[in-house]
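Worked example 2:
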Amino acid sequence: MVDQTVNRISTGVSDLDEVLGGGLIPGRAYLVRGGPGAGKTTLGLHFLSAGAKNGDRCLFIALDESEAQIRQDATGQAIDLAGVDFLDMSPSAETFFQMQSYDIFTPAEVERAPTTQRIIQELETLRPRRVFIDALTQFRYLASDPFQFRKQVLSFLRFLRDREVTVVFSSESTSQMPDYDLQFLSDGVINLELGQKGRSVEVKKIRGSDFQGGPHALRLGVGGMQVFRRLLPKAHRRDFIAETISAGVPEMDELLHGGIERGTITVISGPSGAGKTTLGTLFMKEAAGRGERSVLYLFEENFETLLQRCEAVNIPIHAMIQRGTLKAVKVEPLEYTPDEFAKLVRTEVEERNATIVMLDSLSGYKLSLSGEDLVGHVHSLGKYLSNMGVTMLIIAEVESIMGEFKATDVGVSYLADNIIFLRYLEVRGEMHKAIGVLKKRLSDFEKTMRKFEITRYGVKVGRPLRDLRNILGGGAQVSVAEEK
């Protein structure tokens, strides 16, 4: 294993450096592979740009595209190539008109020597610290057979290593001509994928170093490449006081024996219109009074609707936003991958010190995942927030208005430290709402249910509904004693 204290060099993509354990080990050769449009050249540009900014001599050996085209693409992605040298060996337009034939030797034998000599001459003249080759598989056409190609590549990479050059090279792999040989010859392999669920990057191999495995979300756009690491909860932790957080409604706190604990996961479930979001914002309102900051992610409701509804029930959400104690973020379906969304949350927690995070709602969050594992991602996000001392509120809608009681329609109940449920019930021909606590890991709670109302003066939680029975069964009935 390589000494982990060895200085690493940046790929130019910060989160990819973290996946790699701090960056690339200097003086080694790394293969970047992927299909057309996966981002291989973009990663190479970042690698060289980061080196040039650090004062390193950097060289781009272009075997496919011309220097002019590459620089134009880099400009479109806002990648600065100032200080990057080019060796443009791509075929020119004149090559098409130059009809050359070789009667005794094969074209590969004729072309190989001047190509190799030109590369060596450029390397000896510039003495770069970083080199990107796009694409090394072009050398395959200059070799008479696979053995000669492997020998040629191996000797070339050793030539670069002997000069302590860090080289990144791309490959063009097909089913007819795979790049298994290059994977074996390289010190590291980085896979770029472009699939139906979006872009991803996965490190397959780094000799002498550990790395974070698995696929990580990737996005290409203005600014070039962004990588969003998969969230590993155990890698994040900070000390916090496990105090109780009040809802600001005395009767609600009585139900919860004081409130919910900081750093816990609370699921607020119930049917549509029962008041789940309003209940969640009560905890954020109380946090704002203490000077704490909360973040609310809206996956379904519009921000304007939330603003009007909260102001109508005496929750000053507009003032909270103006003071910076609340941030409401509208998240459109399919806008982010789970890794990208986790990055948003991490930024709010680690850079802006959010203490409460609410997802509204679980079904909307599921839509944003584009068919991925809902429970797994909620589990990772929830455990991360718990480790950081952040209280997580999850709004979970159940489809049934009446009928048999269900905590949630999605199997996330096991993740929750607390489950608060809202329920409609019919009493003497009138529709009412009830609130209760189903689960609380860190303390006891009141086992009764109470009347729940949302008025223009705020949320009201009434006395325990001891005169009703069969509430959870879906058919609330007045007790015999009450009827007499």
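Confidence is low (pLDDT under 50) at residues 101-111, 480-484. The two ends are 81 Å apart (CA to CA).
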